[in-house]
Amino acid sequence: MKEFLDDGLNDAPPIWAIFGDLMTGLVGVFVLILIWTLGFQLELAKDLEQAEAEREREQARRQLLEQALAGPLSTGRITISDGRIGISGSVLFALNSDRLQDEGRELLVTLADPLGVFLEENDQLLMISGFTDDLPIQSGNLNFADNWELSAQRALTVTRELVAAGLPADRVFAAAFGDQQPVAPNRDESGRALNRRVEMAPVPRTIPSSTRSPNG
Questions:
Q1: Structural domain total, the chain
Q2: Strand-pair category, 172-176 with 79-81
Q3: Same-domain pairing of 26 and 95
Q4: In this structure, are 35 and 80 located in the same domain?
Q5: Rounded to whole angstroms, what are the CA distances from 72 to 78, 92, 149?
Q6: What predicted TM-score, i.e. pTM, was given to this entire model?
Q7: Which domain holds residue 161?
Q8: Distance CA 63, CA 54 (A)
């Protein structure tokens, strides 16, 4: 009987062997987690580096834009915020009109050349956006159905004037926002005046020039 019991005990695997296998497994899991963590940290560092490089490039482009438009900026006739060039609607147009005033036309002429150079050097397009306040179109004005149409026509008018002043037509396009994106509350005339505006923003080409076909 004793011999039988001894044989049974001797057949069981030693506890240190089981413990060793367990530790080996745990070490393997730890190594895998460590490798994954290091890979994640490297990828995150790469993404952060790329984001920082893009931020610096965008900041440099904005500085170049400000330098290109230093003259009009110094007169206070335009503003630049986050890379967007703002022009008060009262400078360009009379109320509820899409016909350029003389002051507005003269301003756009001074902008055409520096904008053209900037867009060419940075391979960008210029988006011209029209905005209005929230007041409905006056009933006596038969030219526009609503603020959407008024903002669209104003954006097109500015676009055509810049092209006529020398800005390449393939570098510019128009967009209309009506009263949907105010920059100030429409509670009084001062706020509405700020919302009646035209903005111009350089934007990247959607298709790299190197991949464009000769026929567009």
A1: 2
A2: unpaired
A3: no
A4: no
A5: 6, 14, 28
A6: 0.70
A7: 57-205
A8: 14
